[in-house]
UniProtKB/TrEMBL annotation:
Protein name as annotated: BTAD domain-containing putative transcriptional regulator
Annotated region (Disordered), positions in chain: 935-954
Keyword set, alphabetical order: DNA-binding, Transcription, Transcription regulation
Domain of life: Bacteria
Organism: Nonomuraea ferruginea
Protein family per UniProt: Belongs to the AfsR/DnrI/RedD regulatory family.
DNA-binding stretch(es), residue numbering of this chain: 11-111
Pfam families to which the protein is assigned, alphabetical: BTAD, TPR_12, Trans_reg_C
InterPro entries referenced in this protein's UniProt entry, alphabetically: AfsR-DnrI-RedD_regulator (IPR051677), BTAD (IPR005158), OmpR/PhoB-type_DNA-bd (IPR001867), P-loop_NTPase (IPR027417), Sig_transdc_resp-reg_C-effctor (IPR016032), TPR-like_helical_dom_sf (IPR011990), TPR_rpt (IPR019734), WH-like_DNA-bd_sf (IPR036388)
Record-linked SMART domains: BTAD (SM01043), TPR (SM00028), Trans_reg_C (SM00862)
Classification via Gene3D superfamilies: P-loop containing nucleotide triphosphate hydrolases (3.40.50.300), Tetratricopeptide repeat domain (1.25.40.10), Winged helix-like DNA-binding domain superfamily/Winged helix DNA-binding domain (1.10.10.10)
Record domain OmpR/PhoB-type: where: 11-111
């Protein structure tokens, strides 16, 4: 039978219980031998609740349907009910004395009524009302009321359940009021005061509660307070119901007015009955000594604390472990302590303490009552009554309450005062959205320190002379600690205890990823980054913990939702939910929807975990499949006429992103580019490196990322050689040569192209030979040697023609026309480029069409047809922009500026040159200097000289 641990009580032990116990007064739970039983999902637990409420009575299937779903059950609901009943029967048959049996007319859950808390509550209340001795009755009422942990079947709704819940709540209230009468009869009015105040606030029209509160106040010496309760109720009854108080309450009012001696308890007043005189607590721990920066956050905290009526409200300070949330809260609290004349309360809830269990809220409430000066004898035994007393004692007071290190919203909610005059500061590693939505808390999310703040912290800790002596080491410490105050503090502490130690040694430990977390161990749990992160990790659900650990396998600074789904082999929907948990725990950030990143030190910790969780590397291989298959799909969208790769199918669980068109492809490459580069570096698989290098070629070339293109192609070349994959090696030679041409390493480019041609010839790959010849022509043309370039493009054209490769033929025609134009054969050039344009348009190759319009613009300008040249360049420019071809866009703008200048429009020319310069300068291309010269006016008079040709015209 599947079970899970029952929650520990405030002492950390699992409370003992009967062999079988069913709980309905709160969340639906079942326990066997003191351990909780797994009852399945919510709908199945609701079916069990219906049967337990009617324990030992027959419930029909139709009644179950109506009580679980109401008037609109889904299709196949009856089949679902039978499934739930079968599963529940398997669970219940292993519990002694419990059964789920089929009876005429329906089903019955057979069990001892005393094992069901609701039925036990009713039996104890009935016994209390029949008891002849007051002490016995009071004990029975207390036993009954202690069974309540929340609303009946909390978290579940249906019309029937809501009606039953309302009726049971009335039963509870009646039991509480009967108990109150007994307590008042026995002189316990002082201990009831806080509880009655809370009850009167919750039930403002209940005259019985009002009467009990009036009597308790009067007996505590607060006659005016008792009369005020009556007057407020009288006005409310008149306004809401148009009626007055009952005769019994009016009689009590008169007796209090006339100080009827019969109202006073005749027994001597005990110490426990004396009115509580709250103390002014000063519980704040010492302020942080080495607090640095955070001026903006302190100001935001002060602004958030200013409610419309003055200082008050609740603010949550959330962030990852080690960010200094507690220090920020204490710094603000000490700076503003004078604003809280009624005192400050503080508690460490130990929500993420590496050395202790979380503090139960009831224990915190009890400690607050002590701090407020409540005598132990006056404190009621019931935790809810204690919480009501705490709220009563803080009502109307100007206090600051600091709740440090909360685990979640439920950890904090019982500690919130019910008054706007108190201010509450809550710190947590989680976002505490429950406090924000249900209690109006204002969130303040803490981030890392800035580089300047980190520098000031280290200067103060190391000393100015020590910092000045080793500036490079200090810069390395700042860089590798990433603004995390805990990490900076650990390094500062290690340097302080060893003043003779060179900061360079500490920086050296941080430089190596394998030793960085070791360097951030200060020798104690509170100053050990691994221990701090492990507390956040241990608090995660098992699913979120697995996702977090696997993220240590991911390369790059960010990762997308589909990539994480592939890494984990989960559905996208399930992955998003688990990632949301990690974001709420501040282990991840979500800078834009469905993209995630983490602090470098957090990722190092995740990488350590992933080594154990994904030792076989299955998760990493799925992630590589995601990147490779999506990159291939995106490249096909950018260059649909390029010969595709033949890829093995993606592994099960891999999500291949949907790339609808070239815009989506550009967006995907732009977002994933850092991760793709990191994947090439860290893939650990030569086959992936070769294929990813191929898939990145088009994007890198169009965006002018030639240095990255060279790096990825070098990696692909080395991987192909290790694989002895000669076709991949030949293509990598070409890819590397194209990158070298763009960065003017012409000699290296020529050597790689000669090796590519040799390999393609040996392989008998005519398409590869044609491609290498086109690259060789580009090499010559880029240097202005069009006479040497022309034969290579003619050979490429002939090869493409024999292969019936129409795109290759179009590219060859455009390139041949380009060379003829530079050799002065303008009409021959025009004929070739027109043929190329027609062919490109037939096959819908927009990149080739753009390049050919660019060539035609160049030719028309050489022929003196300036108006036609402008039209050609304008069409090329529009297509280059649509395709995201930044380098080609920059050159087209420059050429268009030249023509406008020749046509006598210097202002328009200047605008185009400026746009061209901005693009080329951003790309870091040497041709930006040529455009800068034009902008500076350092050009000879007469027609402007065109920018040096791109070479291939494609």
């Amino acid at each position: 039978m599947a079970m899970k641990h029952a929650p520990a009580d405030s002492t950390g032990t699992i409370p003992a219980g009967p062999p079988v116990e069913f709980r309905l007064l709160g969340e639906v739970e079942a326990a066997a031998g003191g351990r909780l039983v797994d009852l399945g999902h919510a709908r199945q637990r609701r079916v069990l609740a219906v049967l337990l409420i009617e324990a030992n009575r027959v419930v029909s299937a139709d009644q179950i349907l109506d009580r679980v779903w109401g008037e609109a059950p889904p299709q196949r609901a009856r089949a679902a009910v039978h499934g739930y009943l079968c599963r529940l029967r398997r669970v219940l048959t292993e519990m002694d004395g419990v059964g789920l049996v089929r009876r005429p007319g329906g089903y019955a859950l057979t069990a001892d009524p005393m094992t069901v808390d609701l039925l036990k509550f009713r039996k104890l209340v009935a016994e209390a009302r029949e008891a002849e001795e007051g002490g016995t009755a009071l004990a029975l009422f207390d036993r009954a009321l202690r069974l309540w942990r929340g609303d009946l079947v909390a978290g579940h709704d249906s019309a029937w359940l809501n009606d039953v819940r309302h009726g049971v709540a009335l039963e509870r209230l009646a039991a509480e009021l009967d108990r109150n009468d007994l307590v008042l009869d026995r002189g316990g009015h002082a201990g009831l005061l806080a509880e009655l105040t809370a009850s009167a606030s919750a039930h403002p029209l209940d005259e019985r509660i009002a009467g009990q509160l009036m009597l308790a106040l009067y007996r505590c010496g607060r006659q005016a307070g008792a009369l005020d309760v009556y007057e407020r109720l009288r006005r409310l009854l008149a306004e809401e119901l148009g009626a007055g108080p009952t005769r019994a309450l009016r009689d009590l009012h008169v007796r209090i007015l006339t100080t009827d001696p019969a109202l006073v308890v005749r027994e001597p007043v005990k110490a426990a009955e004396r009115p509580v005189q709250p103390l002014i607590p000063r519980q704040l721990p010492a302020p942080p000594r080495s607090f640095t920066g955070r001026a903006r956050q302190l100001a935001a905290l002060g602004e958030a604390m200013r409610a419309p009526s003055g200082l008050g409200g609740t603010v949550t300070i959330s962030g990852a472990g080690g960010l200094g949330k507690t220090w920020l809260a204490l710094r603000w609290a000490h700076e503003n302590a004078d604003r809280f004349p009624d005192g400050q309360l503080h508690v460490n809830l130990r929500g993420f303490d590496p050395a202790a269990d979380p503090l139960h809220p009831a224990v915190a409430v009890r400690s607050f009552l002590d701090a407020l000066g409540v005598p132990p004898a006056v404190i009621p035994p019931d935790p809810e009554a204690q919480a009501a007393m705490y709220r009563h004692l803080t009502a109307g007071r100007r206090m600051l309450i600091v709740l440090d290190n909360a685990r979640d919203s439920a950890h904090v909610a019982p500690l919130l005062p019910a008054t706007p005059t108190c201010a509450v500061l809550v710190t947590s590693r989680r976002r505490l959205t429950g406090l924000i939505t249900a209690h109006g808390a204002r969130p303040l999310v803490l981030d890392v320190l800035t580089e300047a703040e980190s520098g000031r912290l280290l200067t103060r800790e190391f000393g100015a002379s020590r910092t000045a002596a080793e500036p490079e080491a200090v810069a390395a410490v700042i860089r590798h600690c990433g603004g995390l105050p805990l990490a900076l503090g650990v390094i500062a502490a290690r340097a302080a205890v060893r003043p003779g130690l060179s900061l360079g040694v500490l920086a050296g430990e941080l430089r190596q990823a394998t030793t960085r977390l070791d360097a951030l161990d200060g020798g104690e749990l509170a100053v050990n980054l691994r221990a701090v992160l492990s507390c956040s990790y241990d608090a995660l659900s098992s699913g979120a913990a697995r996702v977090f650990a696997l993220l240590g396998r991911a390369p790059g600074p960010e990762i997308s939702l589909p990539a994480v789904a592939s890494l984990t082999a989960l559905t996208v929907t399930r992955t998003r939910a688990l990632l949301r948990e990690l974001v709420n725990a501040h282990l991840l950030d979500e800078p834009v929807p469905d993209r995630y990143r983490a602090h470098d030190l957090v990722l190092l910790y995740a990488a350590e975990l992933s080594g154990r969780l994904d030792a076989g590397g299955a998760g990493l291989r799925r992630l590589l499949d995601h990147y490779l298959h999506t990159a291939h799909r995106a490249d096909r969208a950018l260059s649909p006429h390029r010969e595709p790769l033949t890829l093995p199918p993606p592994r099960p669980g891999v999500v291949v992103a949907d790339i609808a068109d070239h815009r989506a492809a550009r967006a995907w490459f732009g977002a994933e580019y850092p991760a793709l580069l990191a994947t090439v570096d860290d893939a650990g698989s030569d086959a992936y490196v070769c294929r990813l290098g191929w898939a990145l070629m088009t994007f890198c070339d169009r965006r002018g990322l030639w240095h990255d293109q060279a790096a990825t192609q070098r990696a692909a070349l080395e991987a192909a050689r290790r694989l002895a994959d000669r076709p991949a090696e030949a293509h990598a030679h070409c890819g590397l040569a194209l990158a070298y041409i763009s960065v003017r390493r012409y000699g290296d480019a020529g050597e790689h192209l000669r090796q590519a041609l040799r390999l393609f010839r040996a392989l008998g790959d005519r398409a590869g030979q044609a491609h290498a010849h086109r690259c060789m022509a580009r090499l010559f043309a880029q240097q202005g040697h069009h006479r040497e370039a022309l034969p290579h493009d003619e050979q490429a054209f002939d090869l493409f023609r024999t292969l019936k490769n129409r795109r290759g033929q179009a590219a060859g025609l455009n390139a041949i026309g380009w060379h003829h134009a530079h050799l002065g054969h303008h009409h021959r050039a025009l004929a070739h480029c027109r043929q190329a344009l027609s062919l490109y348009q037939e096959i819908a190759d927009r990149q080739g069409e753009a390049a050919t319009w660019d060539s035609l613009g160049f030719i028309r300008r050489r022929l003196g047809h300036l108006r036609q040249a402008v039209t050609c360049y304008a069409r090329a420019l529009a297509l280059f922009r649509e395709l995201g071809a930044r380098y080609s866009e920059g050159l087209a703008l420059s050429s268009l500026g030249d023509i406008l200048h020749d046509a006598g429009d210097p202002a328009a020319a200047h605008r185009h040159w400026q746009d061209a310069f901005d693009i080329l300068d951003q790309l870091g291309h040497h041709r930006a200097e040529e455009v800068r010269v034009k902008l500076g006016g350092a050009r000879s008079s007469g027609p402007s000289r065109p920018v040096a040709p791109r070479g291939t015209g494609s």
